[in-house]
């Protein structure tokens, strides 16, 4: 567990340096086109060869087993939930672990922007439990307060404004429900990753602010291992909870 604190304003000089570095290394396509075109490009990317090797890449990078460790050791405890939405299920980096660790009667819904990734997930999971459907994070086809848990691994990077995705997650979460989210951070390794997978990165402080403005305050920051925490590697891994009552920040922004 990592202690939480209120977001601090970044050092202006350091922020300017990081922005210059990001402009040189990081994929900038999401800033250059509108969201619809960005989503279309993303769908084509994952429908194609890149999506086909994503599962293997998640194994080689250790993302899959390390996510599984967080869930299996109940640092993020999924055993209590009965209705779970997994956003970005195509590679199975979270879905496979949900199948093993959740209550056998828990409802599992697996969604992905890419139809082809869903087909791959269905074959790989080889389970009748999940309900698979294609969906856009910014327009989820579910009624309000449909789930008591949402998991979302490396999907928010494909949304130009994180609040557009977070507000939808807030909407479909039940009061008191939990969100487990992983995102690429604006570290050097994250910038290289964004170039490979045609996505954006997030600054940790700015993303925490976006969560709070969307009514989803961070409950806990997770790290894959103590070494990841010490070196500040592995990206942003957070658990957030939807308050039982709407937050004042959300009321003011809506």
Low-pLDDT regions = none
Structural class based on helices, strands and sheet pairing: alpha/beta
CATH topology value:
Rossmann fold
CATH architecture: 3-Layer(aba) Sandwich
**Total beta strands:** 7
Q: What Rg, in angstroms, do the CA atoms define? A: 17 Å
Biggest sheet layout: 7 strands, mixed
Domains counted in the coordinates: how many?
Answer: 1
Number of helices: 12
Neighbour order of strands in the largest sheet:
3-2-1-4-5-7-6
CATH class: Alpha Beta
Order of helices and strands: HHHHHEHEHEEHEHHEHEH
Taking the alpha carbons of the first and last residues, their distance comes to 32 Å
User: Kindly state the mean pLDDT as a whole number?
Assistant: 87
CATH superfamily, by name, is Vaccinia Virus protein VP39
The coarse silhouette is globular
Strand content: 15-25%
Structure description:
This protein is an alpha/beta fold and 254 residues long. The protein has one domain: 3-Layer(aba) Sandwich (Rossmann fold). Helix content is 45%, strand content 17%. A seven-stranded mixed beta sheet has the order 3-2-1-4-5-7-6, with helices on both faces. It starts with 11 loop residues before the first helix and ends with a helix. The mean pLDDT is 87.
């Amino acid at each position: 567990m990592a202690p939480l604190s209120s977001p601090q304003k970044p050092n202006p000089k350091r922020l300017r340096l990081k922005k210059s570095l990001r402009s040189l290394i990081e994929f900038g396509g999401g800033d250059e086109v509108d969201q619809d075109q960005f989503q279309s490009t993303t769908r084509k990317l994952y429908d194609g060869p890149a999506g086909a090797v994503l599962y293997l890449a998640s194994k080689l990078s250790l993302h899959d087993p390390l996510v599984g460790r967080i869930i299996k050791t109940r640092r993020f405890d999924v055993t209590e939930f009965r209705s779970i939405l997994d956003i970005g299920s195509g590679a199975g980096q979270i879905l496979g672990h949900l199948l093993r660790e959740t209550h056998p009667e828990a409802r599992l819904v697996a969604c992905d922007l890419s139809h082809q990734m869903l087909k791959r997930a269905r074959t790989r999971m080889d389970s009748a439990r999940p309900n698979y459907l294609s969906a856009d994070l910014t327009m989820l086809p579910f009624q309000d307060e449909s789930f008591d848990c949402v998991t979302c691994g490396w999907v928010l990077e494909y949304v130009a404004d994180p609040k557009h995705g977070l507000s939808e997650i807030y909407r479909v979460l039940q009061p008191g429900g939990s969100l487990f989210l992983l995102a690429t951070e604006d570290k050097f390794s994250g910038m290289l990753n964004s170039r490979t997978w045609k996505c954006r990165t997030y600054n940790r402080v700015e993303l925490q602010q976006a969560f709070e403005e969307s009514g989803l305050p961070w409950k806990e920051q997770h790290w894959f291992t103590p070494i990841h925490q010490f070196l500040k590697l592995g990206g942003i891994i957070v658990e957030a909870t939807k308050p039982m009552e709407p937050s004042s920040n959300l009321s003011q922004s809506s």
